[in-house]
Design a protein that fits this description.
Strand content: 15-25%
Oligomer: single chain
Number of strands: 10
Number of helices: 9
Shape: globular
Structural class: alpha/beta
Number of domains: 1
Radius of gyration: 18 Å
CATH topology: Rossmann fold
């Protein structure tokens, strides 16, 4: 019997769009989708980053991830409320009260995909804090998830590392009450995300209903960089880096057969430093989903 390949029919008539969509409750979120085919790749950006981060000219060789993925399947990215890219370039989504948690964002994303008529199955791709969101979504709503790509993702083990190695004052600034960059603090409703609450949510979800077996690839930054996150110089950078790398190993142990790839030429923004690696990883996952 021939393998079912849903990409030949699914999304065949769907057009490219970039628009604000009203979700349940009345708020509007900006979402952009391009390409055709199934599964749909959903890109979840890191703290503060607009959907535009996936289309920025990369620093490394290759095409930006969003247009590259659009060449072989449907891909969508969106602006969370309060996100920014540069001063003066702010989220196109309606503002909400801050700080927010990973679960808050999962609820928004589920409503948005429904309201924008973006059907599954989905390959979720999350960078940094967005990796925590993508994993939480896949854990809580696994039925339509075809795969998960984690790009230098935050997670509960790394947040525990913050608590172990930072002073109470540093921990408060980094995890409990994070602030936007000084250049953006004059803007209202800039995205602030609670790492501690989000880590507790992800840990609880994993305990209640462990991430089911699915294709999972963990991409992490080069181990040779001195300070890939740009931490203040008086922070215990080496201890935090070891904690982060250990947390990436933990992610790769969540499901059997998961892959952990170190991006040897990348800092934290692997999608900008090595866009070909990210695109190849997504393409492999899409191909695997189409063979099922």
């Amino acid at each position: 019997m021939a393998a079912h390949r849903p990409h030949k029919a699914a999304h065949a008539g769907r057009r490219n769009f970039a628009k604000r969509v009203a979700i349940q409750g009345g708020r509007k979120l900006f979402i952009t989708c391009r390409g055709t085919g199934s599964p749909t790749v959903v890109l979840e950006a890191g703290t503060g980053d607009l959907a535009k981060v996936w289309s920025m000219p990369p620093s490394g060789p290759g095409r930006a991830v969003f247009p590259a993925v659009a060449r072989f399947t449907r891909v969508c990215a969106y602006d969370r409320p309060g996100t920014y890219l540069l001063p003066g370039t702010l989220s196109r989504s309606d503002p909400v009260a801050m700080p927010r948690s990973a679960l808050d964002i999962v609820v928004d994303l589920r409503k948005l995909l429904h309201a924008a008529d973006v059907p599954g199955p989905y390959v979720l791709v999350g960078h940094s804090f967005g990796g925590m969101v993508a994993r939480q979504y896949a854990t809580l709503r696994p039925g339509r998830i075809a795969g998960l790509v984690s790009i230098d993702a935050q997670n509960e083990d790394f947040v525990a590392g913050y608590k172990e190695f930072l002073t109470p004052e540093q921990y408060l600034a980094a995890v409990l009450n994070p602030q936007p960059p000084p250049s953006l603090q004059t803007y209202s409703a800039v995205e602030r995300l609670s790492l501690e609450i989000s880590a507790a949510q992800v840990r609880q979800a994993q305990a209640d209903t462990p991430l089911r077996r699915m294709p999972l690839t963990v991409l992490s930054h080069s181990r040779d960089l001195a300070n890939p996150f740009g931490f203040p110089p008086d922070w215990p950078i080496n201890d935090l880096e070891r904690a982060f790398q250990a947390s990436q190993d933990m992610l790769a142990e969540l499901v059997p057969g998961a892959r952990h790839v170190t991006a040897a030429k990348s800092g934290h923004y692997i999608q900008l430093d090595q866009p070909r690696l990210v695109t190849r990883t997504i393409r492999a996952m899409v191909r695997e989903a189409r063979l099922k």
